[in-house]
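Here comes just one.
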Amino acid sequence: MNATTPQTTRPIPAYGHSAVDYEQRVDYERLRAYRLDRARAALESSECGALLLFDFYNIRYTTQTWIGGALGDKMTRYALLTRGGDPVLWDFGSAARHHQLYAPWLRPENSRAGMLGMRGAISPDAGLMRSAVTEIKGMLEDAGVADLPVGVDIVEPPFLFEMQRQGLKVIDAQQLMLDARQIKSPDEIALLSMAAAMVDGVYQDIVEALKPGVRENEIVALANKRLYEMGSDQVEAINAVSGERCNPHPHNFSDRIIRPGDQAFFDIIQSYNGYRTCYYRTFAVGSSTGSQRDAYTKAREWMDAAIAIVKPGIGTDQVAQVWPAATEFGFANEMAAFGLQFGHGLGLGLHERPIISRLNSLESPVEIQEGMVFALETYCPASDGFSAARIEEEVVVTADGAAVLTKFPAQDLFVANRY
C-alpha cells in the first residue's frame, strides 16, 4: 500500500495488529497529518475564519484525541481551528493533562481543561458558556479573524445565543467537515478493513451459538464480549432481530427466544481505533422455508446490482435507482421505508457521506469518488408476512470499482446449525 491510493490489484489487508516492526501497516503519524490537512483545507475553502467543533468525530479528526463513553457526547469537549493556526482543544478535566503527556502532536498549551454545562446540567446562568465564548473571541481577535464567520458543527442553543450576544457570526461547519472526511486515506481504509475483519470473526461465533433456546440478548452479549476481546474501542449497537420481529424491521434487540426455523438478522456496529462497522447478516436457524429463501434471493440481487454499478464518477442516484421503490416492498413512501434500501458513508462516524437512498439521492445526487468507503444495505420482506432478509456490505471505491470489506458468506441464505 502506497501513501496516496488504496491498492486495487490485491485484497485490502486485515492486519491482526495495526503496527509491527516487520511490515508497513497503519502509519499513525501520516494518518494524523492527513486528517488535520483535510480539516485545514476545508477551512481555507470556506468563508470562515475558524472552525469551532463540538461533534466528537470532528474533534477526533482534527485534534487526534478521543474520550469516549459517557463523556464523549455531553457537549463539553470542543476544539478551535483558526486559519493558519494549530488546533486548540478543551477537554474534560484531567483528560487535558493526559493529552499533554501522551498526545505530543498537540502543543501542551493547546490542551486545556474545559466545562460548559454537560447538556444543561449546569445552568447557563453559572457563566461557564459566557467565559468560554469570551476566551474564544479573544483568540479569534489574536488570530486576526474575529470579523469573519465562525463555522460551528453542532451546538447547544445557549452557547449559540452567547456567541451571537458577543457579536460573533455563526455559520454551519458540519457540511465542511463531512466533505473533508468523505475521502479516506490508505491508513483509514486499513483500519476500516481491520474493523470489518473483527466482525467476520464474530459472525462465526454467532452461527455456532444460533440455536433454538438462545435469546437475542444473549447473542448481543456474546458479540460485545468478543469484540472487546479483539480490541474494539466502542461497541455502539448490535441489532438482533428474529422470527416475527423481522418484519417490520424494529432496529433493536429484545429478549425473544429464538426458535427452530426462525429467520434472524444482526447488525454489528462497532469501531476499531475509531473506524466503524455497519455489517448486517441474515441466517436461518436449523432450516429454512421457500419464502425465506426467496426473500433472501431478492435482497441479494438488489445488493449485487448496487455493488456492480459502484465506480468513480457515477452518481448516488444511479445506485438508488437499482433498488426497488418503497411501494414495491410494502411501504407507502420513501420516508416510511428509509434505511431499508440504503447506503451510508463509514469512517469515524457511522453515517458519513455519501447517503444513498431514493428519499434523497434521486433529487440531490452526489458523485461517487475514489477513496470513499460506504455501506450498502438491502431488505426484503418474505411472503409469509413476518420473516425478512437483511444484507449489508461495506465497500471501498477504487479506480476499478467496489472492493468489498465484509467477508462473512452472504451470497446465499446461511442456515446455522442445520438439522
Remarks:
- The chain has a mean pLDDT of 95.
- The first helix runs from residue 28 to 44.
- The chain has two domains: 28-181, 186-416.
- The two ends are 44 Å apart (CA to CA).
